[in-house]
């Protein structure tokens, strides 16, 4: 598979009144086309900084990000992002259908409408197009945000803790929805989460980050096959072993950082 994303020796230092803050340092990895890669790391380790650099929202102070071999130096048009906070990412005054059509403004109206309807159907919201976001539950609003990203047909879908604000049952449903649509549409996904179980359940690979400044401590293949099931997969030996490994790596990473602080 061709490489979709390459992050090479990425580093970012934020300037500050109390001194510069090194958020990410020497971070390198690649994502192949069609892969779903999860990035897991402790809170504050630099995950959002990494995503912002990939999305071209900040210029990293060191290293490079390349999408299909082209260096990112602005917001790439081939990218879509789904954030945790669905209530702030949808326009409340627009209908669901118009929200999903919004990024497709360059297309003819009929094509725009057809693509939005198709995307809404793929997330099980074919009846909700005329509603407004405020009339939908949190889980349904996040489905709309996912449909909007999918309708755009991005080369790379970035997801920043996308299921962290919904209840546990809805979270399971949305995870399975993501697995289904990425398989149907062959989407490349980079998903950031602090939830170890979620990273193993969803990923083809899990990248484990150290505490701030973030770098990759492990790049683990997830040998669970394509057909995943919330009960059976999570109870399988492979899942339990991998989850323990990620947890140990995260704990180890924290210990190293704590030791430095002492
Ligand atoms: P995460 O997403 O893993 O929680 P972030 O990338 O948001 O981590 O932050 C990494 C570190 O960089 C944190 O210590 C945070 O306080 C710091 N940081 C994030 N954004 C800024 C900023 N704009 N200015 C200064 N420091 C920042």
From TrEMBL:
Upper taxonomic lineage: Bacteria, Bacillati, Actinomycetota, Actinomycetes, Pseudonocardiales
GO molecular-function terms, A-Z: ATP binding; ATP hydrolysis activity
Name of the protein this chain belongs to: NitT/TauT family transport system ATP-binding protein
Lineage top rank: taxon: Bacteria
Keywords carried by this UniProt record: ATP-binding, Nucleotide-binding, Transport
PROSITE patterns per the UniProt record, alphabetical: ABC_TRANSPORTER_1 (PS00211), ABC_TRANSPORTER_2 (PS50893)
InterPro entries xref list: AAA+_ATPase (IPR003593), ABC_transporter-like_ATP-bd (IPR003439), ABC_transporter-like_CS (IPR017871), ABC_transporter_ATP-bind (IPR050166), P-loop_NTPase (IPR027417)
Matches recorded under Gene3D superfamilies: P-loop containing nucleotide triphosphate hydrolases
